[in-house]
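Protein modeling request. Please complete all fields; requests missing the sequence field cannot be processed.
Requester role: graduate student
Desired output: 3D structure, token encoding
Chains: 1
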Amino acid sequence: MSDQDVADWWATSVSRIEPGIIELRGRPVQDLIGSTGLVATIWLMLRGELPPPGAAALLEAALVASVDHGPQAPSIAIARMTATCGVGLNNAMAGGINALGDVHGGAGQQCLSLLDEIVATPGSTADVVARWQSRSKYLPGFGHRFHPVDPRREPLLTLVDEAVTAGIVEGHHLAAARSIEDLLNTRPGRHIPMNIDGATAVIYGELGFPPPLARGLFVLSRSVGILAHAWEETQQGRRIKGPMPPSILPTYRSPEG
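Delivered output (257 residues):
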């Protein structure tokens, strides 16, 4: 095997790192420092180019909205417990992030797949929703186990409306999401509004991100809250924090039932 074979093994267009050289997607890092924000740099790293005007602000809004949901979220609780075990912030963060899966943290990706399917076939909302609901009683991106109406929904959708008016995005994913919401709320006695996963899926779809990156971007955003909670926990001096205060013991169920 030649040196070139080894070099080609790790061939990448994401970054160029050589002695005295650091380039991100072909742009010298020294040109980005001080002139390019973190969100625009995230876009650059994922898409290979800087975002068009207005797009970074919309992406930033989605990232800000998903930063934290308190210790009610398993990922946050796990990070806080892990932080009391003497393993360091990186391990506490990794523990919380590793809890983000299909059920906790995956709804944005699933919702964007749902929206993409509707956008690809205009007028298909009822059929697509019926197929999804035949597989699961949960429709990703709609309803919330904690909030009657998710307080993050309205400001995010307002920003998308404004971006459509400004010509920054086309509005197809927004229309698809609202068509689902309208369909769900025509059923008597039920009000199922879009939640944070639905609203951010709209933004990621409007900005052209594929569904797997919707999950990746959510994890990136939630990592901020995970870090903040883990750091706060380390400042409180508690050791080996469990899921319940020591005064509360789990219910014991005997083998006899």
